[in-house]
Amino acid sequence: MVIDTQGLSFNFGSQQVVKSLSLQVPEGSIYGFLGPNGAGKTTTIKLLLNLLKTDQGSIHIFGKELKSNRIPILSQIGSLIEQPAIYGHLSGKENLMNRALLLQVPEKRVDEMLNLVHLSNAANKKAGKYSLGMKQRLGIALALLSDPKLLILDEPTNGLDPNGIIEVRELLIRLVTQYKKTVFVSSHLLGEVERMATHVGIIDRGELLFQGSIGDLQAISQPQVQIEVDNTVDAANFLKKQGVSVSDINDDHITVPFESKTQMAEINSLLTRNNYPVYSIHKTQKDLEKLFLDITQKA
User: What's the per-residue H, E or C state across the chain?
Assistant: First the structure.
């Protein structure tokens, strides 16, 4: 595990913001850290970056305890919290050159990073005139300048238009698949995380409600079969008389729990043979948004 926390807690005064959090982030993953605004995501990230001191619990990163190995650990982490810290009066390249001098990074890394985040053509343009998507990509380039093993990003797509969101998503996938980084990204844009994450952790009111792979998350929800048919109430009543369990009915379709492809074929045949024409029949799985609501509402 690149990140491993046990019983991590933090209070702001009398308010407990993070409650006994145990995160496990595998190497080479894109870990989507999900939760509504105010759930404790940013506070957790600040704890992971040692910007806040833990009240209780432990943080291990790269297998080492954070407090006693602060400098060697943080030197291997790149981070971006909400908005990138860039100088608007400097060009994109000048921003990177400035950071490279501070980090004592070779100058050639600057051009490599500009190329990686697709900003080479805008390298000499003032960063203050960049679009939001370009600024976010520059912020990620700044975070990657020292070639860290782990990238921690807090709401990197906040305020971006659809093109900007796609740009950041494609970049993060490329960082993991081609450059073997591990990415820990917090977000409340569930559909976006679903498109890129390999693992997710769901937090609400400071508590971790779920953690695992995307496959693990989908496995907690039984797939359904959605059947588009006329006279849905009549068709559903007919199916129930034949011993078929019906989980939902609306004006357009009937939903039944999925058991097998053979079951789907039998239901299709049963309806059509009894004068209920089937216009479509397909297996469906709850998307991340619905699963998130199921989990958080149960809590």
Answer: CCEEEEEEEEEECCEEEEEEECCEECCCCEEEEECCCCCCHHHHHHHHCCCCCCCEEEEEECCEECHHHHHHHHCCEEEEECCCCCCCCCEHHHHHHHHHHHHCCCCHHHHHHHHHCCCHHHCCCEHHHCCHHHHHHHHHHHHHCCCCCEEEEECCCCCCCHHHHHHHHHHHHHHHHCCCCEEEEEECCHHHHHHHCCEEEEEECCEEEEEEEHHHHHHCCCCEEEEEECCHHHHHHHHHHCCCCCCEECCCEEEEECCCHHHHHHHHHHHHHCCCCEEEEEEECCCHHHHHHHHHHHC
pLDDT band with cut points at 50, 70 and 90 for residue 241: confident
Domain 3-219: CATH architecture, name and number where available:
3-Layer(aba) Sandwich (3.40)
pLDDT digits (tens, 9 = 90+) for 54-77: 878 888 988 888 888 888 888 888
Instruction: Say whether 224-298 and 3-219 share the same fold.
Output: no
pTM: 0.74
224-298 architecture in CATH? 2-Layer Sandwich (3.30)
Q: Where are the domains of the chain?
A: 3-219, 224-298
